[in-house]
Structures are given as C-alpha cells and as structure tokens.
Amino acid sequence: MEPARCDTRPFGQAKDVLPRESATGYCDVQLPLDRCPTPGRLYLPRWNEALAERPAPGVVLCHGNDSRGQEHPLIVQLAEALATAGCYVLTFDNIGYGRGWRPPSGMLIHPEDADLRWAAFAGVTLLSSLPEVDAARLYTMGHSMGGAVALAAGAVDSRVVGAVGISPSQVTRVISKASDREKYRMSSLIERTMHLYVSANVVVALRHLTDPLLYVDQLRDKRVLITYVEDENMDSNYREWIESLALTLGQPNCSIVRYPGSDHHYGAAAGGPSSQLTEKLLRPVVAWLTADA
C-alpha cells in the first residue's frame, strides 16, 4: 500500500504562514493517513537570522511502544532540543498510541491495517512541502520501537537523507509455534500500550516491516546514527545485534554512540528538566544532525 500523502493546505505556501514562535514552541497539526487521521506537533526552531537566509533542517521524530505516544518525556525533550538547535521537528501519535487513530472495532486483525511507517512517510511529506524546511536536509529519528520505524522508513524514502535510531528495537526474533511465550509476550505488550487487541499476524508483520537489517542496502546510501545503552544487565543478544547492524552498514556513513550506565529512556522523566543522562544523549544527537548546518 502506498503511503498516504499529507494534506498541507493548512500551511499554504507563503513564507509567513508558519509563525516564528508560539507560546508552547509548537503548532498542532494533523496527518491524514487514508481513513486514519493522526494528531501531531510541529516544533518550531528558535528564530535567528540564519533561518532568514537558509531553510532549516526537518526531523520526523517517532515515539516508541509507549501509550503516551508523542507525549513521552524523551520524545518531548528531544523535539525541544532539536528545535532549539534550529530544526523543524514533527512528532505524532502513531496508530493506536496516545490520541492516534484506533479502529472502531478495537482490534487489529489484518497486517495491512497497521504499518507503523505510514505516519513517518506522511510526516516527511508534510515537512518537505514547507518552504521553511530544507528539502535537502530531511531526517527520520526515533526511540526504541520508533527507532526501528525511523530506520526502516528513512531507508526507503528517497526524500530522507539520514536516519537516527536511539536504542532501536531488535525486531528479528522469529515468532513461530516453537516460540509461543515470545508471541504472547509481544502481543500482550502491544495490546497493553495500544489498548487494542492485536493479532499475532499483525505483530509478525510489524516486526518484519521495521527490521533495519532488511534495509541495509538503502541505509548505506544515507547518513545513519545509532545509539544504545550499555550496562552490566544488557542483553548480550541485543548488543551483538546492534553492533552487527552498525558493522554491516559500515563507515563512514554510519556512526554509533554507546551510553554506559544509562537506562532505556536515558533518564528522561515526565514534567522535569532534562537529566544528566538525557543531556548526554541530546548533545551528540544534536551535533550529528546539525553537522552540515
């Protein structure tokens, strides 16, 4: 199925349509995905004279498997930091998360009903339509499940020049009759966060579509940044998987940053200032993204 095109008419084409600033630092937007309207936020860069001379980079930021969607503290802090650094940042609530679209039946039965890349594609379409955004500097970025989505969507979208996976989910574990425990764990996990019944067939399809290893050839042509948390409790299989992914993508386009002693959410806490761990993540991510500014 082709990704739905985003209706950008609310933004128009004039340079003065987007405000230079807002009380919240973002504008509410809507990404129509076929019959699945998806709420989002467009974070505005801190205005400076450079923005008057050159369009700003654009980032589509994908949340992880968390019921809060784009309200997750790490997503909010990443968006604010990137906007402060001079980027337009689009966040959104993916299908079944936050205020995102849910099927009236409350069930996701068929794999074609839920491709988590759709909203990322629509976000790229929206950003690329804005004259304030530099179409030559469009990126996808995400955390955990959103990291896998960002790598997968960014790989196949020719408009995207780079992708960032922040502790991207390992999605290559096979679900079969021999792994009922894993199948149950993943299905129940997604059901609990999406508040939907999710069939195992959908889980299998979602894993397949967002497996970065399927997109190695496309990712080699892009800038890629991968980060992960490293501590004594780390799953050795995950370490091997992510190091293998980075090695397969190769230098110089792929960079990897390790964070010893952190947690999966890099210390991000709701309603509070960025922690030292979060700041340790934000600095290299912002530096990598704005290296060509």
Low-confidence stretches: 1-17
Query: Could you give the order of the helices and strands?
Result: EEHEHEEHEHEHEHHEHEH
Please list the strands of the largest sheet in the order they lie side by side: 1-2-4-3-6-7-9-10
Instruction: Give the radius of gyration.
Output: 18 Å
Structural class: alpha/beta
Helix content: 25-40%
Number of helices: 9
The CATH superfamily is Alpha/Beta hydrolase fold, catalytic domain
For the record, the count of structural domains works out to 1
Query: What's the CATH topology name?
Result: Rossmann fold
Give a count of the beta strands, DSSP E runs of length 2 or more.
Answer: 10
Biggest β-sheet: count, sense, barrel? 8 strands, mixed
> Can you identify the CATH class?
Alpha Beta
Strand % is 15-25%
User: Whole-Å distance between the termini?
Assistant: 35 Å
The CATH architecture designation is 3-Layer(aba) Sandwich
Describe the model:
This protein has one domain (26-289): Rossmann fold. Helix content is 33%, strand content 22%. The protein has 9 helices and 10 strands. The protein has helices spanning 49-53, 73-84, 118-129, 145-156, 180-194, 200-209, 216-219, 236-249, 276-289; strands at 26-33, 36-43, 56-62, 88-92, 107-108, 133-143, 162-166, 197-198, 223-230, 254-260. The strands form 2 sheets. The protein has an 8-stranded mixed β-sheet, sandwiched between helices. It has a two-stranded parallel ribbon with strand order 5-8. It is globular. Mean pLDDT is 80; it is low at 1-17.
